[in-house]
Structures are given as structure tokens and as C-alpha cells.
Amino acid sequence: EVQLVESGGGLVQAGGSLRLSCVASGLTSNEYAIGWFRQAPGKEREGLSCISGTEGSTYYVGSGKGRVLLSRDNAKNMVYLQMNSLKPEDTAVYYCAADITSCHREMKYWGKGTLVTVSS
């Protein structure tokens, strides 16, 4: 019933920028928490940013801190991740994920991901 669909991935040169999008459906309201994670080959899943439903706070964690910006458009049920100053080590599959209210490592709902490749 709940569906998250990411888009916006692709190939970008190091130092470039990219904006990822995620559209959410099947959630009863915009009070849910939603954020972005990524997973590179052979690496553990890493959280990047998340906005909570109850607190209305946006969190930035991990190696992307300072280079990513999360935004939310409640009218469109969409969230975005603006990524700047991209590095080859940012190459990964990027996922959006949601839960009922709070941001945490093991979110309940996940999209299938969008691949970002950063060339040297």
C-alpha cells in the first residue's frame, strides 16, 4: 500500500550537483518521517538526511553532512535531496525511506533506489 519511488539519479562529474526526488503514496498524512539513505557496493547502508513528522526537524548525518540539503513539498507528497560538491565516494544507490513519525536507522518503508555514479 505504501510506495516510495525515487528518481533523479545518474552520472555526474566530481564537484557537480544533483537533485534526487522521491514521491510517496499510501501514507495517510504528511506527519510521517521521511529521509534519504545510500548504500555503496560492499558497504553498509548509510543515513544522509531525514525530516521528522512530529518534531518538524531536519537531520543531517554521515559523510554527506554539509553537502546535502533535504526539502519537502507536502502538497505534492514529495521530498528532495540536493547534493553538492559530489565526490567519487558518493557513488551509491540512494534510497528514500519513511516511517510513521520518527527518523531512525531502520525505517519501515523503503523505495527501490536510484543509482548515482560520480566520475573522477
Outline of this structure?
With 120 residues, the protein is mainly beta.
Low-pLDDT residue spans: none
Largest sheet, described in full? 7 strands, mixed
- Shape descriptor reads globular
Number of strands: 11
- The number of helices is 0
Strand proportion, as a percent range, falls in over 45%
- Look at the structure and give the mean pLDDT: 91
Binned, the helix content reads: under 10%
Q: What is the gyration radius calculated from CA atoms? A: 13 Å
How would you sum up this structure, described in words?
The chain has strands at residues 3-7, 10-13, 18-25, 33-39, 46-51, 58-60, 68-73, 78-83, 92-99, 109-110, 114-119. By secondary structure, it is mainly β. Strands 2, 4, 5, 6, 9, 10 and 11 form a 7-stranded mixed β-sheet that branches. A hairpin with a 6-residue loop joins strand 5 and strand 6 (58-60). The relative contact order is 0.32.
Question: What attributes does this structure have?
Answer:
about 120 residues, mainly beta, 7-stranded mixed β-sheet, 4-stranded antiparallel β-sheet, globular
